[in-house]
Amino acid sequence: MEDYILYDHQNTSVIFERLQDYMMSPNISLDILEEVHIKLQAILSSQEGQDFINEDTTDLFRIHKLQRNLKLYISPILLIIGLIGNTLSFVILRYDKEKKMSINAYLSVLALADIMVLISGLLSLWVQEVTGVDFFRSVDISCKVWNVIAFTSSIFSVWLIVAITAERFIVVCFPLAAHRICNKNRAIGIIVFLLVFSVCFNAHFLVTTGIVNIGSSRLCDALDGYKTFIRKVWTWVDATTYCFFPLFIISALNTVIISKVITATKKRRNLQHLKRGTSMGLKQRQRRDIKLNVMLLTVSITFCISSTPMVILMVTEVLFQENASPRKSAALLLARTICELLMYVNHSINFFLYCISGQSFTKIFMKLISCRGRYHSLSQYSFRRRSNVIITSKDTGF
After folding, report:
1. What is the spatial distance between Cα 117 and Cα 82, in angstroms, rounded to a whole number?
2. Does residue 108 register a pLDDT over 60?
3. Is the dihedral of CA 117, 121, 124, 125 positive or negative?
4. Are 166 and 123 in contact (CB under 8 A)?
5. Phi then psi for 255, rounded to 5 degrees?
6. 78-79-84-89 Cα dihedral, nearest 10 degrees
7. Those residues with Cβ within 8 angstroms of residue 231's Cβ, 6 or more apart along the chain or in another chain
8. Residue 366: which of 350, 390, 82, 358 has the closest Cα?
C-alpha cells in the first residue's frame, strides 16, 4: 500500500485523495497508517508549495487516529461492563420474588437482548479494529447471518424499552385497567411478537448482503444491485425504526407519565393530611410503585439521551456531507463513532441504573452476594472435613 502511494509522489493531489480513502477503510491498521503518514510528510515537505496539503493530511490523520483509538480502547471497556452487568441483571431479575410480574419478563429479556447487541455489534467492531479482519463476517454465510443477528438484536432491544414505557403509561394513567392489561402472559406475547417482527424486518440481509471484492480486499457489504437500497433507503428505514420513531414514542409517553406521577403525588399527600389513618401496607405499596416508576423512567430517559446525538448527527450528515471537505468528512466520521459508542453505552449500563434507582434490585443483588459468600464458606468447611463431599444449596434466601 505504501509503495502504491509513493509511486505517484509527483502528483500530490492524488496522494491526498488516496490517503483519505485509506483512512476510511476499516481494514487498515493504525501502525500502517502512521508509517504511510510519516513517509507522505517527507515527500510533501520536499516539494515547494505543498505546505497546505501537508497540514491537511496531518489534521486528517490526527482526527482519524482519535476515531480509531476511541474504538480501540473504549469498546472493550463498554463490552466488559455491559456483558457482566446484563448477566447480573438477568440473574437478579430471575431471583426476584416478584418475578411473575410482567415488568420482570421485559427487563429479563432486555438484558439478554443487550448482551446480543454487544456481542454482535461492539465485539465485532473491536475485533476488527484490533486485527484488521472482520472474523465474524469473513465468509458469505456468516456475513449474511451476522448482519441479521446484529440488526435484529438492536431493534428488538429498543422496542422492548418502548414496550416497558408503554406498560408504565398504562399503569400510571389507567390504573383500574392495568391489572387486566399488564400481566405476564400478555408481556410474553408482546415479547414474542417484537422478536418475530425484528427478525422479519431484517431478514433481507440474507439476500442483500454478502462478501464482495473491493480493490484487493474482500468485505461484507451490499451486493451488486442492492447498494442503493442498503446505503440510501435502508439507512433511513433503520434510523427511523431504531432511533426516530422509538425516541418520539418514549419521549411523549414519559412526558405524560412524569406529569401524572407529579399530580398523583400531590393529591396523595393532600389526602394523607386529611386522612391520617393510612395503613402501613398502603404506604409501602405506594413507595414501591414510585421507586419502580423512577427506575423504569431512568432506563427510558437514558435511551433518549444516548440516541438524541445520533439523530442530530444523521440530520447534519444529510445537510453537510455531500459537498464536505476531507477535513469535515473526517470530523463527521469521528462524530459518528462517538455517537455509536454512546448508543452502546445505553446497552451496557442498565445494571447500574437498576442499582441506583431500584432499591429492591440492589437489596436482591446484595443478598445474592452475601448468600454466595456464606455458601462458599460452608463449602470450604465441608470440603476440609470430608474431602469427597461439597455442600451446595439452591435456597434463594427470600
Report:
1. 10
2. yes
3. negative
4. no
5. -60, -45
6. 70
7. 222
8. 358
